[in-house]
Design goal:
With about 260 residues, the protein is α+β, with helices and mostly antiparallel strands. The protein contains 5 helices and 13 strands. It has 2 domains: about 120 residues, Alpha-Beta Plaits, CATH 3.30.70; about 100 residues, Alpha-Beta Plaits (2-Layer Sandwich). The protein has a 4-stranded antiparallel sheet with strand order 2-3-1-6, with helices on one face. A 4-stranded antiparallel sheet has the order 10-11-9-13, covered by helices on one side. A 3-stranded antiparallel sheet has the order 7-8-12, with no helix packed on it. Helix 3 packs across helix 5. The longest helix is centred in the middle third of the chain and has 16 residues.
């Protein structure tokens, strides 16, 4: 059997499974991942990620090995001894992740990791894109501090920067996103340039309160909102004076109030 799974260690003890997902979900050929935070051997947390081919797994291994993940934490990555076993799960969040993976692959299909700070060697031939598409930045796990990078957005919106963001207290997935950590001078036109071109966009509402500026963005379905939740997490707008924006699922989705 072709081994298509990588084994990742070196995580801090308080790592969450979502952080592993954010780390690997945009790597070429990615299919699934899981985190074992309490191994039977009593060792540090262990991560596994399954890819569509052995070549993609090797490319991911080279990308992640020795990557700085947290203070004094560097990842160690190798090809696993056997493939990760995918069991059917019925929890709501895994169903949503499955929708998200399919949606992202269909619309954007990232073909390279040019923005990754650890790619110091020439790109392997099996990673060269077959169709020219804009690179899509992955979400950065909490604790990482890579240099900011830019990427064109889907639909012709202007290029923006991305940065690390901590999003520990999110709500259950829905069709409406809450956009926080906005600058005081942001306006609807700037937000429309970023969110209005995303597949499934329906409407946007900017709210100005005495102490903060926030925004709600509605999409036609949960899959569209989930894709944007991952794709634009940590986006830095031109008017951002507080750092990257924070995207969460709304407590009160449109259409259900």
């Amino acid at each position: 059997e072709e081994i298509r799974t990588i084994f990742v260690t070196g995580f801090p003890s308080n790592v969450h499974e979502r952080e592993l997902h954010n780390l690997v979900c945009f790597l070429p050929g990615y299919e699934a991942s899981q985190m074992n935070t309490k191994p039977a051997t009593g060792t540090a947390p262990q991560g596994f990620a399954l890819f569509s081919s052995h070549a993609h797994a090797q490319a991911a291994m080279l990308t992640l090995h020795d990557m700085p993940f947290d203070t004094d934490c560097h990842l160690r990555c190798e090809i696993a001894h056997k493939n990760m076993y995918l069991k059917v799960r019925h929890e709501f969040r895994f169903f949503v992740f499955s929708l998200e993976y399919r949606f992202l692959r269909f619309f954007i299909r990232p073909s390279s990791l040019r923005s990754s700070p650890v790619l110091t060697s020439p790109e392997p031939s099996f990673l060269k894109p077959q169709v020219t598409r804009p690179p899509v930045p992955s979400c950065v796990p909490a604790g990482m501090a890579p240099p900011a990078f830019t990427s064109p957005l889907l639909g012709g919106a202007p290029a923006v920067s991305f940065g690390p963001v901590t999003n520990k207290f999110d709500n259950p997935p829905c069709n409406t996103l809450f956009i926080g950590n906005l600058g005081d001078t942001v306006d609807e036109n700037e937000l429309m340039q970023v969110f209005g071109n995303q597949p499934g966009y329906k409407q946007l509402k900017l709210l100005r309160h005495p102490r903060q500026v926030s925004c709600f963005v509605e999409f036609v379905d949960m899959a569209s909102a989930s894709a944007v939740h991952s794709r634009l997490q940590g986006c830095i707008l031109h008017t951002s004076d507080r750092g990257p924006i924070r995207i969460q699922y709304s407590k009160n989705p449109y259409g259900k109030r």
